[in-house]
Amino acid sequence: MRITVLTENTTEYEGIIPEHGLSLYIETDNHKILFDFGQTDTMFKNAVKLGVDLSDVDTAVLSHGHYDHGGGLAEFFKVNDKALVYVNENAFGDYRHGDKYIGLNQEIKNNSRIVFVSSDYSIDESISVCMLQRLIQPIDASGLTYVENNSEEAEIFSHEQYLLINEDGKRYLFSGCSHKGIMNIADFFKPDIFIGGFHLMNMDMSSKNDICMLEKYADDLLSYNCHYYTCHCTGNEQYVFLKNKMQDKLFYLSCGSTIEL
């Protein structure tokens, strides 16, 4: 499997444009997959520089209904004329951070190539879209809300879903932001390889409580037989802290990087 990062918050590569968001181009034995679409058209500019032809994508998955993961979806439909896009049925909700709308462009929800998913969905024998069905820790909304029936409530992230790929005897799990909790996700799916954000960027690195929590996360994540490739919303300081604890079990994926697993 080959993974190329088209959009991410950071980059180490000249000519590659970083952007708050995420988009991963995944090449498997049988598929060319796009996981998330970034915030703007930056993904497409980087794809050209990286030699990725997005018209070749045959399958696409949106992790959840936030603008920094689905902002490039409308442009994708122009660039690619064949791939179905698997989207959670709740992805086009009214999602907010304070007074700011952080959801998707409502104009594209009726596109005929969107496949709305409400439960675990097998695309074929090797790839599927999956839902988290058990929690071992409560979900932290981190100040995010959703509006329904004129009532604003703390987020429960009912629009979050995950891409699971089975290849060469290994389970690869892709998560956009892990809003439902990285420990919940790791415990439920128990993948061999995890790729995606941990959503720890809001943890206060000057807080003893938060430091203790990060230490526990590191220990707990190490208890699973899994390698982690993280990015985007994990947080730079938080990643450095975890890396010191997790060593060769944890790696960072910046925009423009390519890994082969």
Name the shape in a single word.
globular
Q: Alpha-carbon distance between the termini? A: 5 Å
Main beta sheet strand tally, sense and closure? 7 strands, mixed
Looking across the biggest beta sheet, what order are the strands in? 8-5-4-3-2-1-18
Structural class designation: alpha/beta
Give the % helix: 10-25%
Mean pLDDT, rounded to whole units? 97
Number of helices: 6
Rg is 17 Å
Our estimate of the beta-strand percent is: 25-35%
Provide the succession of SSEs.
EEEHEHHEEEEEEEEEEHEHEHEE
Number of strands: 18
State the low-pLDDT regions, or none.
none
Query: Quaternary status of these chains?
Result: single chain
List keywords for this structure.
single chain; 261 residues; alpha/beta; seven-stranded mixed beta sheet; 18 strands; 20% helix; 28% strand
How would you portray this structure in words?
The longest helix has 15 residues, at 208-222. It is built from 6 helices and 18 strands. By secondary structure, it is of the alpha/beta class. α5 (208-222) packs across α6 (236-246). β16 (227-230), α6 and β17 (250-252) form a beta-alpha-beta unit. The radius of gyration is 17 Å and the shape is globular. The termini are close together. The strands form 3 sheets. The protein has a 7-stranded mixed β-sheet with strand order 8-5-4-3-2-1-18. Strands 9-10-13-14-15-16-17 form a 7-stranded mixed β-sheet, with helices on one face. A 4-stranded antiparallel β-sheet has the order 7-6-11-12, with no helix packed on it. The protein has helices at 42-49, 67-70, 73-79, 182-189, 208-222, 236-246, and strands at 2-7, 23-27, 32-35, 59-61, 84-88, 94-97, 100-101, 114-117, 121-122, 127-130, 144-148, 151-154, 162-167, 170-175, 193-196, 227-230, 250-252, 258-260.
